[in-house]
Amino acid sequence: MILRTLAILILASVLEVGGDALVRIGLHSYGYSLAAGAFALFGYGILVNQSGVDFNRLMGIYIAVFFVVSQTISLILFKQVPDDRLLLGGGFIVTGGLVILLMT
Residue 6: how many CB atoms within 10 A of its CB? Predict the structure, then answer.
């Protein structure tokens, strides 16, 4: 159950962050990126709600997964390297997600 939930959350966060990135790109290029971003964001909304996990617990875990995926995509697509403060705060976020995931 934990691995299935994590897989769903990772895919959902890739869709959300990727969709946001496509919208960001589309605002500057006016191509198909805006439409692709909208579809990705819609897919995220459908996928993240497929889990049988309680919504509040699901979102707590999701925020940690979202942080890691968003930093990875930001580094790859926009060449933005996180600074020490961002990594420290992100460490707290990920630790909180792990507590929610593992302590129930």
Answer: 13
Q: Is the pLDDT of residue 104 over 70?
A: no
Q: What are phi and psi of 80, to 5 degrees?
A: -100, 115
pLDDT tens for each residue of 15-74: 999 999 999 889 888 779 999 999 999 999 888 877 676 888 888 888 999 999 999 999
Determine if the pTM surpasses 0.85. Answer: no
The packing angle between helices 33-48 and 2-29, to 10°, is 160
What b/e string do you get for 87-102 counting C-beta neighbours within 10 Å, with b at 16 or more? eeebeebeeebeebbe
